[in-house]
Amino acid sequence: xxxxxxxxxxxxxxxxxxxxxxxxxxxxxxxxxxxxxxxxxxxxxxxxxxxxxxxxxxxxxxxxxxxxxxxxxxxxxxxxxxxxxxxxxxxxxxxxxxxxxxxxxxxxxxxxxxxxxxxxxxxxxxxxxxxxxxxxxxxxxxxxxxxxxxxxxxxxxxxxxxxxxxxxxxxxxxxxxxxxxxxxxxxxxxxxxxxxxxxxxxxxxxxxxxxxxxxxxx
DNA sequence: CCCTGATTCGC
DNA sequence: GCGAATCAGG
Length: 218
Hints:
This is GcrA cell cycle regulator. By secondary structure, the protein is mainly α.
């Protein structure tokens, strides 16, 4: 396999989307992740911004540093985009998907099924069907989850790989997103932590230590 | 062990 | 230019 224009385009696109080298390699086929990484470097598009996969850190590494683009008129930039309002409505930044609804015979689906215009489902559905062996559709419901965790989840769900049931593996996050009764349903799919069924962000909201409620004595 | 990207270096 | 092997890390 050689790096045709088309393949390079795919590489650039996926890399920009934050896909990992191995995911890209898998998509392209015929190459290993090493090949992808090597190409990425040769293309000079090394460090990305939207860090996903593997080392995600909640810090905006000032990696920007484009050797040009000086910024004269910029007094201060103290704006903190993270951890603020509980649920700021966000227009889906990725205009992809959403345009593939078969012939849904009058689907009122008012409550759920936002996907194309509203923010993505904030919580997994109660009826969510989870792969055998992995029950527990988490219900943080009345629980109090830290704003950080929620923010993290929303962030992650925007970047979900949107896998189908069959695409899940031992190491992909199995957190359901959307309404299983509609087409707007998929699984997070991001790398899950060893042994756990969910990715870091979802583990954060899935396994609550029964926080607020003080445990009774025993 | 699973995974991530970064680098090296023979081809 | 390419990418396997290796390195460094979570």
